[in-house]
Amino acid sequence: MSAIVAENIVAGMGVLTAAVMGWRMIASRRAATMSVARGDSVRAVPPSADVLSRMIETLDLVPAAVLVLDAGGRILHAGPGAWELFGDSLGAIMRHPAPLSAVLELRDGERVEVDMMLDVPIRRAVRGQFRRISIGAGQSVVLATLQDGSERDALERMRTDFVAYASHELRTPLAALTGFIETLRGPAADDPQAQQRFLGVMAGQAARMQRLLDRLLMLSRVQMIEHRKPRGTVSPAAIVSRVRDEAAPLLDGGPATLNVDLPAGLPDFAGDADQVVQVLLNLIENAIKYGSDERDRAVTIGLRVRQTVPAALMGVVGAGKIQGAAPGGGVRQGIAFTVTDNGPGIEARHLPRLTERFYRVEGNSPRRTGTGLGLAIVKHIIDRHEGRLTVDSTVGKGTAFTVWFPFGDGVSPKRHETVMDTSFPQPADPG
């Protein structure tokens, strides 16, 4: 992949150079013609907008992320490759202090290369190459090519994090397995009852390690594509249908029941259907594990779907709330999925840390044996969709997790007649 990108950059710079030379010749010929026609030695006026527009038409053929900037760093034109790769992040890239200061210090004919790291709305590693050229008397532009190194950066972080997290979290189950193996080889070698008991515990520890590795790999995959904006559209009804089917094994024969509130005619929204389903399954799984208290009563889980705006989510008054690190406020509409339970609730001091990796809210329920990665995965998926996450919890009554996904470009909520709902569902009363 990096080789292909490098070839595109090289090819792009070649076309840029050719285009610049060609349009410099055009500008000089126009200047000479105008000077002869006027019969004096006065230099020609700066090239018209037509000259710049023709150059831009040529640059749009370059198979790379190409920008044309003015001498102050303002974007005059972004090629198709730049929009495809970076979209609305182009403005944030050029407002970054590193490329902005480099562009301002460039002189005609000079070239500079800048590496930058963007953290908002998501982490992105970008390398920019900038060259200032003169296109006429007293007029110059800066040609820029951008290269996205986010996947390479994510891969490096994934390797480091995986080793750190796996070595820390796998130490406990591995120590337990080692101890039981030594016991089975020694004191319990001739004790069938002890062997069966220990083998059961060992199987549980092995399953715990398998779940941990599966979640770590899932988290890594989500981070790898977090900077890519989803291209598909998602039907709320189809999502709910898949969630019901895939959650059935978690609910069958257990203490939890799932109640769905899905109005008819909700519009589609922009997103990755598989990831949206994963978010809801993670929340439902958490509700099953953490939704009961020490009395181990039956868990009632609600899944409510509404069309709403993020302002409605942020106006909640409750024990506490957290917000996803994605933009998208104002009156932008979208679809909100709310998963509620009638469990013991979560104390307010825990809410700001719920999406941290391996953070767990300890309790007395025997089912509270999660990996601590489920909500971290949820957060990264929501960030990729430019969505929001809010949590409202009341101790002794229950918890409500709401994930909001905005309507994307080309997805209009006007295709369906849906009443706007701005209320926030409160946790179910345990009764």
From TrEMBL:
Q: What is this protein called?
A: histidine kinase
Q: Which reaction does it catalyse?
A: ATP + protein L-histidine = ADP + protein N-phospho-L-histidine
InterPro entries, per the entry: BphY/WalK/GraS-like, HATPase_C_sf, HATPase_dom, His_kinase_dom, HisK_dim/P_dom, HisK_dim/P_sf, Sig_transdc_His_kin-like_C
Superkingdom of this protein's organism: Bacteria
The kind of enzyme this is, by top-level EC class, is: transferase
EC number(s) stated in the UniProt entry for this protein: 2.7.13.3
Q: Which Pfam families match?
A: HATPase_c, HisKA
Q: Which CDD domains match?
A: HATPase, HisKA
Annotated ranges, domain Histidine kinase = 165-409
> Which lineage do the record's taxonomy fields give for this organism?
Bacteria, Pseudomonadati, Pseudomonadota, Alphaproteobacteria, Acetobacterales
What is one Gene Ontology biological process annotated in the Swiss-Prot or TrEMBL record? Answer: osmosensory signaling via phosphorelay pathway
* Gene3D superfamilies membership: 1.10.287.130, Histidine kinase-like ATPase, C-terminal domain
Per UniProt, the keywords (alphabetical) are: ATP-binding, Kinase, Nucleotide-binding, Phosphoprotein, Transferase, Two-component regulatory system
Q: Which GO terms describe its molecular function?
A: ATP binding; phosphorelay response regulator activity; phosphorelay sensor kinase activity; protein kinase activator activity
